[in-house]
Amino acid sequence: MSAIGSKARRDRIVHLATTTGLASVEELSQLFGVTASTIRRDLAKLTSDGQLARTYGGAMALAAHPEASLRQRTGEAFEAKQAIARWAAAEVRPGESLLLDAGSTVGALAHELRTAKDVTVATTGLTALQELADVESVHVECLGGTLRPLSQGFVGPLTEAALERLTFDRLFLGTDGVSAEYGICEADLRQTRLKELMARRADRVYVLAHAAKLGRRPFHTWTPLRSDWTLVTDDGADPRVVEGLRARGVTVVLTQAEHTDTAG
Questions:
Q1: Which of 71, 74, 80, 156 lies deepest, with the highest CB count within 10 Å?
Q2: Which residue stretches of the chain are H helix?
Q3: Which domain of life is it from (predicted)?
């Protein structure tokens, strides 16, 4: 039997939503040392209270995991995002055609590209557009469509139709979470579908994700992470997660964030 009471156990289950976002009945049973039927009763109670949502295959979507806005995410892991962006920008060569996803880390890359020479950038993100709008050495294409206010990115059939007429040397993707098992995670199925379509149009694909996003499964829509893609993260990444990704053939680049001392 578990050493904690049912209410405390349910509170713990709800708390897991902020870290993993998913768990099966079996995993929770092992974690708390109780039977599967006990866990099912807990989940039924939490579902009836509006704190859980069931998913396919017996997995549980642990309490609502609200999507943060782009404004909220911009200040998170700032040094790590800058290191990732610098590494990605160094990969770009003059004359190349680039496709940039929406998101704060890809937005940091767009900022680094302000000094690029003779490149074409197509993007679905407002942040990249704002960063590059006045840069004469960068030719900018906007893949318009339906704007998602939270992500400040375009999605939908108009965006997808524009992609059909273009190809790219490099694609830089953002993500809300990375799992060796499932791939890259987003809040909206339109986003994951778009990422797959974008990847088909590019010769090289990079996923830009700071360390805190590795191993996270906050939502339930996925783009498979292919073995010929490159994941660019920072040196704070959990070595076990990195090893799991590399075991599946994914190239993982660890950049070194320059942490600022704010003491005093």
A1: 80
A2: 6-15, 25-32, 36-48, 70-74, 78-91, 104-112, 126-132, 157-163, 189-200, 239-247
A3: Bacteria
User: Of all helices (H) and strands (E), which one includes residue 202?
Assistant: strand 202-208
Domain limits of the chain?
6-61, 70-255
pLDDT digits (tens, 9 = 90+) for 8-54: 888 787 766 545 555 677 778 888 889 988 888 887 777 666 566 55
> What does pTM read for this prediction?
0.73
Question: Would you say 199 and 235 are in contact if contact means Cβ atoms under 8 Å apart?
Answer: no
Environment class of 179 (CB within 10 Å of its CB; exposed 0-12, middle 13-18, buried 19+) = buried
Rounded CA-CA distance 187/62 in Å is: 14
Fold for the domain defined by 6-61: Arc Repressor Mutant, subunit A (1.10.10)
